[in-house]
Write a structure and sequence with these properties.
The complex is a heterodimer of chains A (298) and B (181). By secondary structure, chain A is of the alpha+beta class. Helices cover 40% and strands 21% of the residues of chain A. Chain A has helices at residues 3-6, 9-51, 83-86, 102-116, 124-142, 187-197, 203-207, 245-248, 264-278, and strands at residues 56-64, 73-77, 88-94, 150-156, 159-165, 169-174, 177-180, 226-227, 232-233, 239-243, 286-294. Chain A is elongated and about 115 Å long. Classes of the chains: A alpha+beta (298), B alpha+beta (181).
């Protein structure tokens, strides 16, 4: 005979009911705990996804001769399938028109960069050394009979590196405002530095006939490659334009923000249209790669 | 070690009324005074503040700050910065703004103490200096320059494109932290 049998009927009912309630409460508690933990895990996953975001990229380009007899610009866009692992590389090279082998050299730069892919995003110094050595190889081959500019971006995750030689453009358009990121290696920059250090205004720097001449280029013997030692953070809805100076010589870079739309292709068409309507009689080659970053995929 | 570079330019005006006072004893103490933003002639008070900075050896940041506060003109715009390779202490008044480059972004340096790491970059300048610069242009020049001087030169090229440095007194100081040196 168990202890339960010793109890009166009333107490047996109470005990049985208590046990039943306890079991139901335990089941409910376990159910609640599981549901709560699942919700927390889901929230954490969502948060991690937002923090560790990879932007959706929308990429377009334009590549036009303008009024010149031949095309001396070249461009490169790395395969979009490589983007999740290695990021995206886009570059424009503008062959120097006054010299003989501008088109050959700009094409050579593109093919050499293609061979070097994938570039390691976190090794911007090493990447700049690769470009510097490439410039030296071009010098050895062509002995200053040709040269090219270079403007290149490397985007991965939330960040971007850029590399620049010469006077092509890396422009970041954010919150409706255009920003030229790369300093230009032109003689006018050297003159500005000279006048500013002596306390003068810099009007004379722009009057000088040689002010637009490049002080460095790919194919120079000891090229200084300008590069970001640490990457720049990129944000949702940023638009990046890598272009030859055939664009910004005609369209003021400050007004390029007006060309930006949600689709990179539309932005490219708008910039092309702006250049065409100017109808400059000696329009230079103009080339640009547009990259639009968005959290929403296309 | 902290590398620094100062830029002081009349900007096409007859007089230079701003100033940068420095003391390295052994931690770098810098006062950036935006005198050209005042309608009053505060040259005497400016020189007094300079003497306070010169004699700041052995004094805490708070002591120097209090002395500057008492001496500065009522409408003074200035920033006081004490910087080593470990930390920066900053106090700003009015239209003199310090920025720091951190994690690929440019952020305004808050008043108070902040820890620093190798290769951190800071710029402090008057609002006139920043007038033709965007945050992204300051940031990208900071990240591509190998020295403080180069960073400043690249910023001047940007300002010059707009106004040929003929815009009024221009005053700025920048810093790069070099803990491995």
């Amino acid at each position: 005979m168990s202890d339960f049998d010793l109890l009166s009927t009333e107490y047996r009912v109470i005990v049985a009911a208590s046990i039943a309630i306890a079991i139901v409460a335990a089941i409910l508690f376990v159910g609640f705990a599981v549901s709560y933990l699942r919700r927390v895990k889901l929230l954490k996953l969502k948060k991690d996804t937002i923090t560790d975001e990879t932007f959706a990229l929308d990429v377009a380009y334009f590549y036009e001769k303008g009024k010149r007899s031949n095309q001396q610009d070249s461009y490169y866009i790395s395969p979009i399938t490589d983007y999740p692992d290695n990021g995206l590389v886009a570059l424009v090279a503008d062959g120097m028109g006054g010299l003989k082998y501008g088109d050959e050299i700009s094409n050579l730069i593109v093919s050499k960069i293609d061979e070097m892919m994938p570039l390691k995003f976190d090794e911007s110094f090493n990447n700049s050394e690769i470009l510097r050595k490439l410039s030296r190889e071009i010098y050895e081959e062509y002995r200053l009979q040709g040269g090219s500019t270079l403007a290149m971006v490397h985007i991965k995750g939330n960040y971007m590196h850029f590399y620049s030689v010469g006077d092509s453009d890396v422009i970041l358009i954010r919150d409706g405002k255009s920003n030229v990121l790369n300093p230009k290696q032109k003689y006018s920059s050297s003159l500005v530095k000279k006048y500013s250090k002596s306390g003068q205004t810099t009007y004379e720097a722009y009057v000088d006939r040689e002010s637009r001449a490049l002080t460095d280029f790919m194919g120079n013997s000891y090229t200084r490659v300008i590069y970001t030692q640490r990457p720049i953070r990129v944000l949702d809805n940023d638009t990046i334009l890598v272009s030859s100076d055939g664009v910004t010589d005609i369209v003021n870079w400050k007004s390029l923000n007006m060309c930006v739309s949600k689709r990179a292709k539309s932005t490219a068409e708008h910039i092309k249209h702006l250049i065409k309507v100017k109808k400059h009689p000696r329009q230079d080659n103009y080339t640009g790669v547009i990259i639009r970053l968005s959290r929403n995929s296309y | 070690m902290v590398e620094y570079y100062t830029f002081m330019h009349k900007g096409g005006k007859e007089e230079y009324k701003d100033n940068i006072y420095l003391s390295y004893t052994p931690v770098l103490t810098v006062l950036i005074y935006y005198g050209s933003n005042s309608t009053n002639d505060n040259q005497e008070k400016s020189e007094l503040m300079g003497r306070i900075i010169s004699a700041s050896k052995g004094k805490t940041f708070e002591e120097v700050s209090e002395m500057i506060n008492k001496t500065a003109p009522a409408d003074a715009d200035y920033a006081l910065i004490k910087i080593s390779d470990k930390a920066v202490n900053c106090e700003r008044h009015g239209s003199v703004f310090p920025y720091i480059v951190k994690n690929g972004e440019l952020k305004i340096l808050p008043n108070g103490i902040m820890a620093l790491e190798d290769s951190d970059r800071i710029i402090c300048a008057t609002s006139k200096f920043y007038e033709e610069l965007s945050e992204l242009s300051i940031l990208s020049d900071a990240l591509t320059s190998l020295s403080c001087e180069e960073w400043m030169d690249n910023l001047l090229c940007r300002i010059s494109e707009h106004n040929m440095l003929d815009c009024g007194n221009l005053t700025a100081v920048n810093f790069i932290v070099r803990t491995d040196d």
